[in-house]
C-alpha cells in the first residue's frame, strides 16, 4: 500500500503519515491537502527517511484529500528548507510556509475579479464613500485590498459596487510576462568590468555552485557587470534571482533593467497584491518568470530552473529578518546556490567582514572593481572636529559645511546632508517639569514629526498629536525639542541659506514608488539644491550634479556600541560618500564628528579601507566575535512582565554547561519593552567548534511555557536590543 510522510504547515505538529488514494499521483515535493481532525491543512510530501515521524499503523492512516495544482517543490528547495530550519533553530513548518506564501497560487480559479472606479457617483454620498472614491483613483484590486488602500470597510465598497461607482473586471491571473531579451542592447564594458563579467558568465555556463564576492567601489558599475551573467543565464533558458535590500531601491533598478533587457523583471516583495503574488509565484514555479527581483522573501520561491543568484548591496543589515524565522538572506542565498548548483554573486562596495573573511579563506572568489566607471574620481573625505568648529548656538551644522553648501549653490551643484534620524527631534521634553515623552508600548522616546505635528514611536508605530500643553504638569507651550532629526536640519538649512531649495528624503516622504520616482526626477531636473536624508538616500542613487556630501553626525552609529557599530558606521558613511562626485565633477565629503581620532573616522578620512578592516578584524578576533567566534541570542517575551521573567528564569535554571560556550543572562533586554511585550535575553558566545544550534535546541526543548510566552532564537544576530 502507498503511504507518504507529509510536512504539514502547522508548526505545532510533527510530520504526519497519510495514505495515497487510488489514482492520485504524488511524490516528494507535491503540495497536498491533508485531513487533520475535521479540518484540511496544506502539507508537502517529504522523503520519509529525512523526517522522523511516529509509525502509525497502516489501517489507521487517513487518505490525502487532494494534490494542489502547482509543480512539486524541487529537491534543492526541500534541502534549503531543511538547512534553514536546522541552522536558525526554527521549525520546518515555519520555513516551509515561506516557500508557499503564494497569494492563492496554490488553488483557486485562473481568473479573479478585481474592481475599479467607473467614474460614476453613488446616488447618496457619505463621507466614507467620498473618501473611498478619492483614494481609489487609478487603483484596481480586490475589494479587500481596495478597502485596505482606502481605509474603509469592505461594506462601504460593496455599497459603491451596488451603486455602479465601482465595477468588476475579470483578470487572468496567469497571463505571461513580457520576455526579457539577453541581447536587447549591447553595453560596452570597461576592461575591468569585462574581466569580472566573463568570470561570472563562465560560472553560469558551467552551472555549478560558485560563490563570488564582487567587491567594487561605489560607481564602479557593479550592476552593469552582473547584468552580463544575467544575460548568459537568459540565453540558456535559466532563471535568475536578484535580491535587493530595500523596495525603495527597486525603482531605479527596474528602470536600468528594462533599458538593458527590453522588459521589466518580475517583482516579489511583501506588499504585492494577491493577484500579482499569485501570478509571480506560478510563473516562477513553471519557469516562465525569467528574472525575479525581490526582497529577502524571494529567496524561498520555487524556481523551476535557477541559473544564477545575485545579492546586491550584500552587506546591508536589512537582509537579516528580525521576526519569525530570523534568517540572513545573504547567507541563505549562498546555501541556495549550493543546493541548486548555481553561482552566487554577493555585490558590495563595503562588504561585511564575514564575507571578506570567506574570501580570505578561499571559500568565496573575490572579484574587484577598484575604480569608478568612466574615469570619475573617488571623492575626497575630510573630518570636521565639532569640538573645535562649533556650530552656532542651537544649530547643528559647522560653518565650513554651510560654506560648502553655499559654494555648490553658487555653482548650480547639489549637496546631500545625511543624518539617520527621521522626524524633527529624537526626544521631546517639558521645559517646566522635565517630563520626557515616551512610548507607552516600548522602551523608547517619542520622536517629534513637525510635518505632521505628531509624536511617533519608530518601533511600534504608536502616534499621537503633539500636545499643546504638557500632559504631565499642564504647563502650556513648554515642549522642547532635543537633538536634531532630518526635518530640523532642513529648517536650519532654510534659515541659513534661504535661497536653497531643500528636500527631506526619508521613508516618510518617499513612501511609495511614485513618490520615489518624483524625487529622482526633481533632483535630476535640478529642482532641488540640498537633499536632507536618512539611510534611504545612502545607496543606489546616481546624481551627477551632486558634489558635496555632509555627514551631520558621523558618531551616531557608534553610540549603541554593539559588535558591528564600527563596521556599520564605516559602511554607512562610505556608502553615502559614494553619492558624491559620480559625474565628471569631483566630489567632496565632510564628516562632522566629536571623535576625529576614533579608528573608524580616521580610516574614513584617510580613505584607508584596509586599515579599517584589519583593525576591525583584530578587534573581532580578540573578542571571539563573528567571523571568528559565534553569537546567538534568545529573547523571551510576554505581555506580562512577571510571566516573561519567570519563563526566562526557568530557562536559566536549565542552562547547559558546555565547554567554550559562554551563556550570559537572563537579563532584561536593552529594549525591555517592545510593542507591548516585556523582554528578557540570553546572549551566547561560542567557539566555532561548538555545535551551537544543537546546544540551544536541546536546552530549550525540555522546557514548557504558558501560551503567552514567546521564545525566539536568533543565530548570528544583528540586533542586540
Ligand atoms: P555601483 O553600483 O557599482 O555603485 P553603478 O552600477 O550604479 O555603480 O554604476 C555607476 C554609473 O555608471 C551608473 O550610472 C551606470 O549606468 C554607469 N555605468 C557603469 N558601467 C557602465 C558601462 N559599462 N557603460 C555605461 N554606463 C556605465
Ligand atoms: Zn513604541
From TrEMBL:
Domain of life per record: Bacteria
Transmembrane segments: none
Alphabetical list of Pfam families matching this protein: DEAD, PriA_3primeBD, PriA_C, Zn_ribbon_PriA
One cellular component (GO) term of this entry: primosome complex
Catalytic activity: ATP + H2O = ADP + phosphate + H(+); Couples ATP hydrolysis with the unwinding of duplex DNA by translocating in the 3'-5' direction
DNA damage is among the record's keywords: no
Annotated binding of Zn(2+) 1, by residue: 430, 433, 470, 473
Enzyme Commission no: 5.6.2.4
GO terms for biological process, alphabetical: DNA recombination; DNA replication initiation; DNA replication, synthesis of primer; double-strand break repair
Positions contributing to Zn(2+) 2 binding: 439, 442, 457, 460
UniProt domain Helicase ATP-binding: residue ranges: 203-369
Keyword Membrane listed: no
A GO MF term: zinc ion binding
Summary of the function given for this chain in its UniProt record: Initiates the restart of stalled replication forks, which reloads the replicative helicase on sites other than the origin of replication. Recognizes and binds to abandoned replication forks and remodels them to uncover a helicase loading site. Promotes assembly of the primosome at these replication forks.
UniProt similarity note: Belongs to the helicase family. PriA subfamily.
Keyword field: ATP-binding, DNA replication, DNA-binding, Helicase, Hydrolase, Isomerase, Metal-binding, Nucleotide-binding, Primosome, Zinc
CDD domains recorded: DEXHc_priA
Organism: Qipengyuania citrea
Annotated PROSITE patterns: HELICASE_ATP_BIND_1 (PS51192)
Cofactor note: Binds 2 zinc ions per subunit.
Cofactor(s) named in the record: Zn(2+)
Protein's name according to its UniProt entry: Replication restart protein PriA
Matches recorded under InterPro entries: DEAD/DEAH_box_helicase_dom, Helicase_ATP-bd, P-loop_NTPase, PriA, PriA_3primeBD, PriA_3primeBD_sf, PriA_C, PriA_CRR
Encoding gene per record: priA
Subunit structure: Component of the replication restart primosome.
Amino acid at each position: 500500500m502507498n503511504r507518504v510522510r507529509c510536512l504539514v504547515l502547522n508548526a505545532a505538529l510533527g510530520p504526519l503519515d497519510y495514505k495515497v488514494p487510488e489514482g492520485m499521483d504524488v511524490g516528494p515535493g507535491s503540495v497536498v491537502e491533508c485531513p487533520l481532525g475535521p479540518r484540511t491543512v496544506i502539507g508537502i510530501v517529504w522523503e520519509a527517511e529525512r523526517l522522523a515521524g511516529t509509525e502509525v499503523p497502516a489501517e489507521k492512516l487517513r487518505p490525502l484529500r487532494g494534490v494542489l495544482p502547482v509543480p512539486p517543490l524541487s529537491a534543492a528547495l526541500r534541502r534549503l528548507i531543511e538547512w534553514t530550519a536546522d541552522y536558525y533553530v526554527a521549525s520546518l513548518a515555519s520555513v516551509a510556509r515561506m516557500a508557499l506564501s503564494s497569494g492563492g497560487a496554490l488553488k483557486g480559479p485562473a481568473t479573479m475579479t478585481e474592481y475599479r472606479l467607473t467614474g460614476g457617483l453613488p446616488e447618496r454620498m457619505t463621507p466614507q464613500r467620498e473618501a473611498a472614491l478619492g483614494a481609489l483613483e487609478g487603483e484596481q484590486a480586490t475589494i479587500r485590498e481596495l478597502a485596505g488602500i482606502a481605509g474603509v470597510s469592505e461594506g462601504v465598497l460593496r455599497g459603491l459596487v451596488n451603486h455602479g461607482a465601482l465595477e468588476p473586471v475579470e483578470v487572468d491571473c496567469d497571463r505571461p510576462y513580457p520576455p526579457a531579451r539577453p541581447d536587447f542592447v549591447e553595453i560596452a564594458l570597461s576592461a575591468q568590468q569585462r574581466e569580472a563579467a566573463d568570470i561570472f558568465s563562465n560560472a553560469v555556463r558551467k552551472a555549478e555552485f560558485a560563490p563570488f564576492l564582487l567587491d567594487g567601489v561605489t560607481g564602479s558599475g557593479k550592476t552593469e557587470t552582473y547584468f552580463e551573467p544575467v544575460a548568459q543565464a537568459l540565453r540558456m533558458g535559466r532563471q535568475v534571482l536578484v535580491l535587493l535590500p530595500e523596495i525603495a531601491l527597486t525603482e531605479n533598478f527596474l528602470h536600468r533593467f528594462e533599458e538593458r533587457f527590453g522588459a521589466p523583471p518580475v517583482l516579489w516583495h511583501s506588499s504585492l497584491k494577491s493577484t500579482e503574488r499569485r501570478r509571480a509565484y506560478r510563473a516562477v514555479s513553471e519557469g516562465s518568470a525569467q528574472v525575479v527581483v525581490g526582497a529577502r522573501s524571494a529567496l524561498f520561491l520555487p524556481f523551476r530552473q535557477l541559473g544564477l543568484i545575485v545579492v546586491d548591496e550584500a552587506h546591508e543589515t536589512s537582509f537579516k529578518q528580525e521576526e519569525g524565522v530570523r534568517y540572513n538572506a545573504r547567507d541563505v542565498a549562498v546555501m541556495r546556490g549550493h543546493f541548486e548548483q548555481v553561482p552566487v554573486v554577493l555585490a558590495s562596495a563595503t562588504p561585511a567582514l564575514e564575507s571578506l573573511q570567506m574570501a580570505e579563506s578561499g571559500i568565496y572568489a573575490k572579484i574587484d572593481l577598484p575604480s569608478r566607471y568612466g574615469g570619475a574620481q573617488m571623492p575626497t573625505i575630510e573630518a570636521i572636529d565639532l569640538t573645535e568648529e562649533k556650530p552656532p548656538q542651537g544649530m547643528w551644522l559647522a560653518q565650513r559645511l554651510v560654506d560648502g553648501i553655499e559654494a555648490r549653490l553658487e555653482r548650480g551643484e547639489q549637496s546631500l546632508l545625511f543624518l539617520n534620524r527621521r522626524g524633527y527631534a529624537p526626544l521631546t521634553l517639558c521645559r517646566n517639569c522635565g517630563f520626557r515623552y515616551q512610548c507607552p508600548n516600548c522602551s523608547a522616546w517619542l520622536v517629534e514629526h513637525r510635518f505632521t505635528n505628531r509624536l511617533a514611536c519608530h518601533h511600534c508605530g504608536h502616534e499621537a498629536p503633539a500636545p499643546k500643553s504638557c500632559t504631565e504638569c499642564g504647563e502650556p507651550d513648554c515642549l522642547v525639542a532635543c537633538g536634531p532629526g532630518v526635518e530640523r536640519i532642513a529648517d536650519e538649512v532654510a534659515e541659513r541659506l534661504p535661497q536653497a531649495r531643500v528636500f527631506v528624503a526619508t521613508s516618510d516622504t518617499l513612501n511609495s514608488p511614485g513618490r520615489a520616482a518624483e524625487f529622482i526626477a526633481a533632483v535630476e531636473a535640478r529642482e532641488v539644491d540640498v537633499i536632507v536624508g536618512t539611510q534611504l538616500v545612502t545607496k543606489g542613487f546616481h546624481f551627477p550634479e551632486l558634489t558635496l556630501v555632509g555627514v551631520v553626525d558621523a558618531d551616531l552609529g557608534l553610540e549603541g556600541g554593539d559588535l558591528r557599530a564600527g563596521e556599520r558606521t564605516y559602511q554607512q558613511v562610505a556608502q553615502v560618500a559614494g553619492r558624491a562626485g559620480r559625474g565628471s565633477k569631483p566630489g567632496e565629503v565632510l564628516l562632522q564628528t566629536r571623535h576625529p581620532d576614533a579608528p573608524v573616522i580616521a580610516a574614513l578620512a584617510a580613505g584607508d579601507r584596509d586599515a579599517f578592516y584589519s583593525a576591525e578584524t583584530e578587534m573581532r578576533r580578540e573578542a571571539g566575535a563573528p567571523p571568528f567566534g559565534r553569537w546567538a541570542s534568545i529573547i523571551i517575551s510576554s505581555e506580562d512582565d512577571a510571566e516573561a521573567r519567570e519563563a526566562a528564569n526557568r530557562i536559566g535554571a536549565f542552562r547547559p554547561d558546555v565547554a567554550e560556550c559562554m551563556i550570559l543572562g537572563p537579563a532584561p533586554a536593552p529594549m525591555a519593552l517592545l510593542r507591548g511585550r516585556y523582554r528578557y535575553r540570553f546572549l551566547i558566545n561560542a567557539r566555532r567548534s561548538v555545535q551551537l544550534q544543537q546546544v540551544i535546541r536541546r536546552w530549550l526543548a525540555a522546557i514548557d511555557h504558558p501560551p503567552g510566552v514567546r521564545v525566539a532564537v536568533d543565530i548570528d544576530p544583528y540586533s542586540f536590543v
